[in-house]
Write a structure and sequence with these properties.
Blueprint: E1 3-7, H1 11-23, E2 27-31, H2 34-44, E3 48-52, H3 60-68, E4 78-82, H4 87-95, E5 100-103, H5 108-165, H6 171-205, H7 208-214, H8 222-236, E6 243-246, H9 256-272, E7 280-287, E8 290-297, H10 313-316, H11 326-339, E9 343-349, E10 353-361
Parallel strand pairs: 1-2, 1-3, 3-4, 4-5, 6-7
Antiparallel strand pairs: 7-8, 8-10, 9-10
Helix pairs in contact: 2-3, 5-6, 6-11, 8-9, 9-11
Length: about 375
């Protein structure tokens, strides 16, 4: 049974509408002013809200704004019920997040139809989101074992050799095996952390309020973060002599940690899939209100047929053979770009290498 909250200060209208919905199989809640409407919506969590604009204590616009700012009611369908029907009022209601607008006097069947249509759309959206999460979980289950096997086999294999042969091995041999085991453990930890991050990003992507909150970030020192992350990655691969970079600063709508993670993943791939002495470059520029970050390496190219499959976790693992984590890192960066209203482009050619460009809107 769906619950509808009716916020209306006119007793006669409120009673008639409530009676209609109860008769049609709904559970009707009643609020006679804006303050009651907000409190009842947060406490009872109705499936849909029908709200008058002109009410005491809080008007309909204030009720809508307050509920949209609450994570538990931010997505609740909201229909204005009012005698005010100017274009200005309609635009204001829609801009604040209202789903529909019914003008008094109205036919009860029109109100009932509007409520049913909105509930059907909401249910369809929930089914779609549930389907996406189900598909994502299934994809994770299928791809996770392959990603984990290589570092796990390294840990198991070398630790077994050490446990069996440590008494006949030279000190240097033990140190080398211990180092390889440690590096495999670091690789395994990174893969696990990336999978957890990707799962978190997938969930965030289905939460409109969370995305709105993330897009409120304002980053002023993008240049410092990009340069520092790039240099740290070059040092990790001992490739300082192979790099070139020229970074402009721009104010971006992204958190510093998320930009650092994106640059870290892309530059790690650039070094991983190029050889020592092959150049790895990173440049940024501002053009047409967009901030472009280009990362280029002269190493092995993408398979052309795979470039458009970044968002498909089932396919991305096959982009390169013998390397773990590449597809996962690209998938994370791609998801960041979706969340922050950005764009990712990939160009890859034999003997020329791969160039990945991130485009961000600039905060003015």
């Amino acid at each position: 049974m769906n619950t509808v909250l009716i916020a209306e200060d006119d007793d006669s209208i409120r009673n008639d509408v409530s009676e209609l919905f109860n008769y049609e199989g709904f559970h009707a809640l009643e609020a006679k002013n804006g303050r009651e409407a907000v409190d009842m919506a947060i406490e009872k969590k109705p499936d849909i809200i029908v709200c008058d604009i002109m009410m005491p204590e809080k008007n309909g616009f204030q009720v809508l704004k307050e509920l949209r700012q609450n994570s538990e009611t931010s997505l609740t369908p909201f229909i204005f019920l009012t005698a005010k029907a100017s274009i200005k009022d309609t635009r204001k209601g829609m801009s604040e997040g209202a789903d529909d607008y019914i003008v008094k006097p109205f036919a009860m069947k029109d109100l009932l139809e509007a409520v049913n249509i909105r509930l059907k759309k909401t249910e369809a959206m929930r089914r779609k989101e549930a389907s996406k999460l189900k598909e994502f979980r299934e994809n994770i289950v299928h791809s996770l074992p392959h990603e984990l096997l290589t570092p796990l086999n390294g840990i198991l294999g070398f630790s077994q050799l050490l446990s069996i042969n440590f008494h006949i091995m030279e000190r240097e041999e033990i140190g080398e095996m211990a180092q390889i085991t440690y590096e495999s453990a670091l690789q395994l930890n990174r893969i696990v952390q990336n999978y957890l991050l990707l799962a978190q990003l997938e969930i965030i992507f289905l939460d409109k309020k969370k995305i709105k909150d993330l897009r409120m970030h304002i980053l002023h020192n993008s240049k410092d973060i990009i340069e520092k992350t790039f240099l740290e990655k070059a040092d990790e691969y001992k490739r300082r002599n192979d790099i070139e970079f020229s970074i402009e600063n721009a104010v971006l709508p992204i958190s510093g940690n998320d930009l650092k993670k994106a640059i870290s993943e892309l530059t790690d791939n650039a070094f991983k899939f190029s050889r020592a002495s092959e150049k790895v470059n990173i440049f940024s520029s501002v053009k047409n209100d967009l901030y472009a970050i280009k990362i280029h390496n002269q190493g092995k190219e993408f398979q052309k047929s795979k470039i458009d499959q970044i968002r498909d976790i089932k396919e991305i693992g096959g982009m390169f053979q013998g390397k773990n984590g590449l597809g996962l890192g690209l998938l994370i960066v791609s998801k960041y770009m979706e969340i922050y209203n950005g764009k990712i482009e990939i160009h890859s050619e034999p003997e020329k290498g791969t160039e990945i460009t991130l485009y961000f809107p600039i905060v003015k």
